[in-house]
Predict the 3D structure of the following.
Amino acid sequence: MSTDLRYKRVLLKLSGELVRHPDGDGISVERLARLSGEVADARRLGAEVGVVIGGGNILRGTAATERGIDRVSADYMGMLATVINALALQAALEKQGVETRVMTAIAMAQLAEPYIRRRAIRHIEKGRVVIFAGGTGNPYFSTDTAAALRAIEIQAEAVLKGTKVDGVYEADPVKNPNARKYDSLRYIDVLNQGLKVMDATAVSLCMENSLPIVVFNLSEGQNLQRILKGESVGTIVQ
């Protein structure tokens, strides 16, 4: 492992939107390949990486609920969508020569390992990228909360939330071009102002455990590497 990195072990939180096919729902092979290339570059730098990926490109539990499916069933459906994305990301990473493991919070032995904290840490110590799927395994909790929880459990030094925007703004920059971007924020400011960083449960977990959150644009190449090297990119919540 490189000793020159600001963050040596990180949890990368990805939304399913980052791999959504441009023509609709589903997985874009091209976007997945580019994303896996960024993760592979982070490993080559010497960073230890865990990943939580959402399932919004396939199904969102909240959207299913709005269509009449009961909340618990909808949330489990959303968890299964994250497993699909995790397996796709695993295949893409292994094409890049990166050794991986998928661990799920819901038992499915034919597809992935069950999540066991000590085993996950051991995989990471051996240089494998561990992709955590199935959320927390419980309804009513988002993949943001799963990311914060797994980051704390594997003793990550930061949660890096890759998005399509270059940080956190005081208002939607698409609707308000004059919205101010924050370079840094306190956890309590995020909670009090209802800023869309991560959900309140995830932010509270990070606050209680002094775990920084970095929100950045993963669509711009090299940003992940720049953060690992200590450059100021996106918005940091600490």
Remarks:
- The chain has two domains: 18-134, 157-238.
- The chain has eight helices and eleven strands.
